Amino acid sequence: MSALQIAGGRVLFPDMTVREADVLADRERGRILETGDTARGDETLDAEGCLVVPGLVNAHCHAAMTLLRGYADDKPLDVWLRDDIWPVEAALEPEDIVAGARLGAAELLKNGVTALGDMYFEVPAAAAVLAEAGLRARVGHGIVTVGKDEAEARADFEEGLSVARELDGAAAGRIRSALMPHSLTTVDADLLEEYAPRAREAGVPLHYHANETADEVNPIVEAHGVRPLEHADDLGLLEAGDFIAHGVHVDAAEIELLAERGVGVAHCPASNMKLASGIAPVQAMLDAGVTVGIGTDGAASNNDLDVFDELRDAAMVGKLEADDAAAVAAPDVVRAATEGGADVLGFEAGRIEAGALADLVVVDLDEPHLTPVHDLLSHLAYAVRGSDVRHTVVDGEVVVRDRELLTLDEAAVTREAERRAKSLIERAESDE
Ligand SMILES: CSC[C@H]1O[C@@H](n2cnc3c(O)ncnc32)[C@H](O)[C@@H]1O
Ligand SMILES: [Zn+2]
């Protein structure tokens, strides 16, 4: 057996206490062996003066959208997608998505993200990039049927299903999959109802955008006489292990439904604020027992993939929504960004304890903005930045050491992304 020891740090344990401890990981099984005064490993990662936390989980992302970072800002979701994003996405070539996914992977890992949920196009190629970079991910082909005839719409669902079947369990289990219809308003309801059981047969969950804006809720209520998540339930889209993105405009009955069905929510506070989509009732979800994770959404609506940023936003905006400074407190957001996200994505990660997947992050505390230390949980929720991440470990393997990405050539990745982004926009704008 080959083991990695993360030595000399202070460790955040699942009960949200922080104690001095080493962590020993089995690199072959990718699992944590023990914590405390551990045996030495074949490889050591220095955590002296640092805080060792579970790897952050980005529960909803479109990693390749890093290519569209800063391309279109300051617009509401429907206008932004229709006028800016979808026209450019129509010009995407597979190599663009590969370059964007690589850039996303580099940014995620350097910011301490060890796992993500990712919905986009060219998924086998993008998943290979995420896996090679060392990430853990639940991926899926984003299915959109609006504007397509029946044959095209079915073909999109078939692609979503075959990609999910093909990729589930890839990269020694680091890649899992889901059937990922884009949303309840951009995908045909009859096909959703028809394909959901086929995803169940394939053993994969469903993931889709839901209740993101008020404009999305009203047409469903008008057409079906029920709220979107009740409609989703009627279509068979709310089963244990499924997870939705956003869940901003949800009422009490829908929150109860999410909790009863065991459906997770990827809360995306920055994207929800930037697109002025609304404020999700996160405290009410937590009170109801809904599993909540944190997502950045794509870099075009965020505009970065820093989950530390995101969990601070989640705490701040959660307090505003609840009109209560005690709401969505530090331990709640730290848990959501780690264990919550891992549970949402169905990974046995997000906690530092024997048996859990060895996905860990070492945060450097030797920074002015992290001084003094009264409460490290407070720092994690309100002061730590992605750039404070010193080491990132996924599956027992060191992927970032002393802020250097070991799995990708960062300079080459950013150069290629810059080149691809420019040519993509030129192509898209010349098609107009
Ligand atoms: C069909 S692949 C995913 C699809 O989703 C688009 N997208 C990015 N951000 C959002 C968002 O906040 N809500 C809805 N859809 C979003 C992305 O551009 C792709 O087209
Ligand atoms: Zn999204």
From TrEMBL:
The protein's enzyme class: hydrolase
Keywords: Hydrolase, Metal-binding, Zinc
Cofactor(s) demanded: Zn(2+)
Binding locations of Zn(2+): H60, H62, H209, D297
Catalysed reactions, as listed in the record: S-adenosyl-L-homocysteine + H2O + H(+) = S-inosyl-L-homocysteine + NH4(+); S-methyl-5'-thioadenosine + H2O + H(+) = S-methyl-5'-thioinosine + NH4(+)
GO MF term set: 5'-methylthioadenosine deaminase activity; metal ion binding; S-adenosylhomocysteine deaminase activity
Taxonomy, superkingdom: Archaea
Pfam families: Amidohydro_1
Transmembrane region(s): none
EC number: 3.5.4.28, 3.5.4.31
Binding annotation for substrate: E89, H182, E212, D297
Gene3D superfamilies membership: Metal-dependent hydrolases, Urease, subunit C, domain 1
Amidohydrolase-related domain mapped to chain residues: 51-399
Cofactor note as given: Binds 1 zinc ion per subunit.
Family from the record: Belongs to the metallo-dependent hydrolases superfamily. MTA/SAH deaminase family.
HAMAP family assigned to the protein according to its UniProt record, in alphabetical order: MTA_SAH_deamin (MF_01281)
Function: Catalyzes the deamination of 5-methylthioadenosine and S-adenosyl-L-homocysteine into 5-methylthioinosine and S-inosyl-L-homocysteine, respectively. Is also able to deaminate adenosine.
Name of the protein: 5-methylthioadenosine/S-adenosylhomocysteine deaminase
Naturally occurring in which organism (per UniProt): Natronomonas moolapensis (strain DSM 18674 / CECT 7526 / JCM 14361 / 8.8.11)
